[in-house]
Amino acid sequence: MPSQQDGDGGMKAGSCFNRAESSVLNDTSKSLVLVNYFRSVPIKLLACVQNSGDLINMLPTCHDVAANRWANFVAVDFYKRSEGGGSFQATDTLNGELLCGCNNVHTCCK
Question: Which Pfam families does the record cross-reference, listed alphabetically (predicted)?
Answer without folding.
Answer: PI-PLC_cat
